[in-house]
Design goal:
Layout (H helix, E strand, L loop, with lengths): L1 E10 L2 E11 L4 E5 L6 H8 L7 E6 L2 E2 L5 H5 L2 E5 L10 H11 L4 H15 L15 H13 L5 E5 L7 H18 L2 E5 L3 H7 L2 E6 L2 E6 L1 H6 L4 H9 L17
Parallel strand pairs: 3-8, 3-9, 6-7, 7-8
Antiparallel strand pairs: 1-2, 1-4, 4-5, 9-10
C-alpha cells in the first residue's frame, strides 16, 4: 500500500531520517512509536507529500509519489493530527464536507455520507452545526476522523490523534477507533508515544530512534526478544513487562 525505500530527510542540515525503509501492509494497522524527535511525524508528512524526501523513494499503491500525482494520491488518504486541525470559521459539518463539496459531489450524496460518518464515529447529529470552539476535545477528534473518512480513503494516517485528551475520553475514543478500523478494514498508520496504545491498535509496531528503526514486530516480539538495550529501556520506562514472566524486562532477556 505505502512503501518508503532508503528515504532520508534533513532540516537545516540536521538529519531527521536516515536511509529509512518501511512497508505498510494493506488492511493492517502499523504503529510508529519512539521518543520525541525520533522522526515519527516526519514519516507521516512524507507519506502525505507534505514533505519531500532528500533521497530515496515513496510509493503509494505501487506508484512513486511525485509532484505530478500527489494531489490525486491525497484524495485516497485520510489525515488526522493532534487537536484535529479543524477550521475555526467553519461548522463541524462544513469541516467534514469541505473536500466533498470542492470536488463537486451532489448535496444529497454529501448529506448521506455525512450522516453515515456521524453514526460511525458516534457523534450526535446536532453537534455538526456547532463550531470547533463549541465542541469538547473528544468531539473535535471525532469530527476530524469524520473528515478524514469522508472520501472513503484507502489509507488513514493519524498523528497522535488522542495525545491531548484526558484518560477517560481517550479510552472511549480508543475503543471506537479500533471498532472503526476493524469494521472498515482500512490500512492505518498511527503515530503515538504511548506503548500501551501501540499494543492496543498495532498489527505491527515500529520502534524508532534518531530517524532509524530499532525494532519492528508485535508487542511480544519487543518484550520477549528486544533488539538492544534501547528497546529494553524504552519499554521499562513505560512499565511494560515481559509476557512470559510478568516482570520488568532486563537486558539479559535479549
Amino acid at each position: 500500500m505505502l512503501s518508503l525505500s532508503h528515504v532520508s530527510r534533513s532540516f537545516d542540515g540536521k538529519g531527521v531520517l536516515h536511509a529509512f525503509d518501511l512497508n505498510v501492509e494493506p488492511g493492517k494497522t502499523t504503529v510508529l512509536i519512539g521518543p520525541s524527535g525520533c522522526g515519527k511525524s516526519t514519516v507521516l508528512r512524507l507519506m502525505t507529500g507534505l514533505l519531500t524526501p532528500d533521497t530515496g523513494q515513496i510509493t503509494f499503491r505501487g506508484q512513486p509519489l511525485l509532484p505530478s500525482n500527489i494531489l490525486q494520491a491525497r484524495r485516497s488518504m485520510g489525515y488526522v493530527i493532534q487537536e484535529g486541525g479543524l477550521f475555526a470559521h467553519l461548522t463541524a459539518g462544513r469541516n467534514v464536507t469541505l473536500m466533498a463539496r470542492y470536488l463537486g459531489q451532489s448535496p444529497r450524496e454529501v448529506e448521506l455520507r455525512l450522516n453515515e460518518m456521524a453514526e460511525l464515529v458516534r457523534l450526535p447529529r446536532e453537534l455538526l452545526d456547532r463550531y470547533p470552539n463549541e465542541l469538547s476535545g473528544g468531539q473535535r477528534q471525532r469530527v476530524s476522523l469524520m473528515r478524514a473518512l469522508m472520501l472513503n480513503p484507502d489509507v488513514l494516517l493519524l498523528d497522535e490523534p488522542l495525545g491531548a485528551l484526558d484518560p477517560m475520553v481517550r479510552f472511549d475514543l480508543q475503543t471506537d477507533l479500533k471498532r472503526i478500523f476493524q469494521s472498515l478494514a482500512k490500512t492505518v498508520v498511527l503515530v503515538t508515544h504511548d506503548i500501551a496504545e501501540a499494543d492496543y491498535f498495532g498489527d505491527l509496531i515500529v520502534l524508532m530512534r534518531d530517524g532509524r528503526i530499532v525494532q519492528q514486530g508485535t508487542m511480544t516480539d519487543l518484550t520477549d526478544h528486544p533488539a538492544d538495550d534501547f528497546v529494553v529501556r524504552f519499554l521499562n520506562a513505560q512499565r511494560i513487562r515481559s509476557s512470559n514472566e510478568n516482570r520488568v524486562i532486563e537486558a539479559s532477556d535479549r
